[in-house]
Write a structure and sequence with these properties.
This protein is an alpha/beta fold. The protein has 15 helices and 15 strands. A hairpin with a 5-residue loop joins strand 2 and strand 3.
Length: 398
């Protein structure tokens, strides 16, 4: 049995390693002395840990830096060339698989549509194949993939390791996603609800802005969810399904949802609901998909524009509920619907929220659009994996 002193020393070393690798990630390139100043650790401690990191290949020296009074020191940075992680994002109508470096930057990705009526098992087999193909590509380019993160629609039960419900797509609850990916890829796998992954992506890139406050990331895509970060920690709930705002009611006597509730938010403002409403209004000869409805919006179709604004209004009602439930300092809106007309959506939502919450609450809150281009959730999936690597670097490299 390990003595308490040995256990404490090991824990302290793990914490120091995690602190330094996260500081280095934020700084990009810096000297050991600068890391010592930032971390308030002894220079010798920083040097020893950095030597370990360099020996493992986690960190590399990148030439000389010129400091005060012209003094030169050796610069160090995270090794973003030799290692990486896989990020996977599952949606109702498509999925994305990407390679990311250890700073969370996208290296390569593939986005694929899911065929209408395709069974979840077949979709999952495709995802596995795309993941294997990207791992082969990474190996060919001398990059070793060391972990995988996957973002999935909720509600996702962490306890059971399964999606409890994917509105409009039945069968995913039968698949043990995490277990099967571990077996397939022979890598550590981390599964996270997609809005939580999106929230982590925002926090990763703007931690100083969000530190010591409450951030809510609203994913307005094929479903609607919220990732809630309070003082740097995700709020997950007892079984991991906190933040499922898509299944909160904004019309209590509205149509019944597959979850059992009535008038659920996502049935009024998701990209699927938006596309459905456009088809009902325009009655085209051939049913339009989401991309085609967006094209009509961009061409200035008044009916599509009206439906988009109505969708923004419905999302605003959901956001007001979030504001009054969690009193966030920051709300960030992302995913498919947020990419259609970000400025228009933001101004509409801000106006609606300001009218419906107390002035003091609104004055102490910032609403903005996502800073992560393309797909916040696939970035967040990769970051979930990277966070574990940074929390336990010895497990991966020692």
């Amino acid at each position: 049995m390990r003595g308490s002193h040995g256990y404490n020393q090991e824990s302290i070393q793990d914490m120091n390693r995690t602190l330094l690798i996260n500081l280095l990630r934020k700084e990009g390139v810096c000297a050991r002395a600068h890391l010592a100043n930032l971390s308030m650790l002894k220079q010798a401690t920083v040097t020893n840990i950095m030597n370990d990191f360099i020996n493992w290949g986690l960190v590399k020296e990148v030439g000389f830096l010129v400091g005060s009074k012209g003094r030169r020191s050796i610069g160090i940075s995270i090794n973003n060339d030799d290692y990486g992680v896989l990020g996977i994002r599952l949606g109702r109508k498509n999925y994305t698989v990407g390679i990311f470096d250890l700073s969370g930057n996208l290296v390569e990705y593939k986005r694929r549509e899911v065929a209408i009526g395709q069974k979840p098992r077949d979709t999952f087999q495709e995802i596995k194949k795309e993941a294997r193909d990207l791992m082969k590509l990474a190996k060919k380019e001398k990059r070793k993939i060391i972990a995988t993160g996957m973002a999935i629609p909720g509600p996702y039960s962490e306890r059971r390791g399964r999606i409890e419900l994917m509105t409009g797509v039945s069968g995913w609850h039968e698949i043990s996603i995490k277990e099967e990916l571990i077996e397939e890829l022979q890598l550590p796998v981390f599964v996270e609800q997609d809005a939580n992954a999106g929230a982590l992506a925002q926090y990763w890139h703007n931690e100083e802005d969000y530190k010591n406050s409450v951030l809510v990331y609203i994913a307005d895509g094929q479903g609607v969810g919220a990732g809630i970060i309070s003082n740097g920690e995700l709020l997950k709930g007892s079984i991991g399904v906190a933040g499922e705002i898509g299944h909160t009611s904004i019309y209590y006597n509205g149509p019944k949802c597959a979850c059992g509730n009535f008038g659920c938010l996502e049935n009024y403002c998701s990209s699927i609901a938006f596309t459905k409403r456009v088809n009902e209004e325009l009655k085209p000869e051939k049913e339009l998909n989401f991309s085609e409805t967006v094209k009509l919006f961009q061409e200035g179709d008044e009916r599509v524009t009206s439906i988009f604004l109505e969708s923004c209004d419905n999302l605003s009602a959901g956001i007001v509920n979030v504001v009054n439930s969690f009193n966030p300092a920051f709300i960030v809106i992302g995913d498919e619907m947020a990419h259609i007309a970000p400025d228009l959506m933001l101004s509409r939502i801000k106006k609606n929220v300001e009218e419906r919450v107390l002035p003091e609450i609104y004055a102490n809150m910032d609403i903005s659009m996502s800073v992560v281009s393309n797909d916040s959730m696939v970035h967040g999936a990769a970051i979930v994996a990277i966070m574990d690597i940074f929390s336990h670097p010895g497990k991966y490299f020692e």
